[in-house]
Every structure is written in structure tokens, then in C-alpha cells.
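Take a minute with the sequence and C-alpha cells given here and flag any C-alpha cell that looks odd. Thanks in advance.
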Amino acid sequence: MDSEKQASTKRGTYIASPIEGEGIDKVSPLLKYEKPLLGPDSFNEITLILQNNTEQRLEGWLKIVPPSDWTIEPGDTLMIAIRAQKFTTAEFYLAVPVVPTTGSHLLQIEVTSDEGIISEATFDIGSGLLFVVDN
């Protein structure tokens, strides 16, 4: 029983794909984070991996919209540049609120350039909300 208890609380790296049906188009995103997420008001390191699917360098802005009441650091808008057929990463930190809302916990991203929106994606990070409670 002790080994089962230890296995259920073990942290591990998780790679999430966007929710199906989202506009991945010119940039394909993946989200990398540790599960379960740390408890309320602890900052969780999140890495967004962005793959440029075009034959040209893309420059623009990455807008990150966290779930309601979550805190994002260092900010929700980052400047990005991705070489043709290469990838880049964007690292940021998310803190879960003391009392997370019920339902889905969606993290949304939008990549824009001078052309306008070149990629949009939504990730459901609710599966990471498993807090370890010591008895």
C-alpha cells in the first residue's frame, strides 16, 4: 500500500497538445509542465514549445491567457522570433489560486505578427490540479 501511495504522489513531466479543432496553422504549440501542479500560491514553471511550420522566419507576439484568477509571471505578452522550420520555447510561471474555480481550467495562447493572428491554441491544464495533502 505504501508503494501505491508513493506512486500516486510522484511528480512527472507532462507534454500537452492543444484541444482538437484549434487553429494551429503556421505555428504548432505544445505545453510542458510538471504534474501535479504545486498547490495554491506556488509558482509552477511552464514551458511553451512553438514550432514554425513555414519557410520564413516569424516574428511577433505571444499572448498567454491563464485560467480565471490564476497568476502569470513575468507577464502575459512576450516578444517571439522563430526561424523557418525551427522551434523556440517560452517559459513562464503560473500560480493556482487558493480556491480554483470549478469546471475547465483553460490556458489560451495567441501568436500574432504584422499579418495578424498566425496561430491560436487552447490547453486544458485541469488534469494537473492534484494537490498532495499530508495526513
In short: The beta strands are 12-16, 27-35, 43-52, 58-65, 71-73, 77-82, 87-95, 106-113, 116-124. The longest helix spans residues 2-9. The helical segments are 2-9.
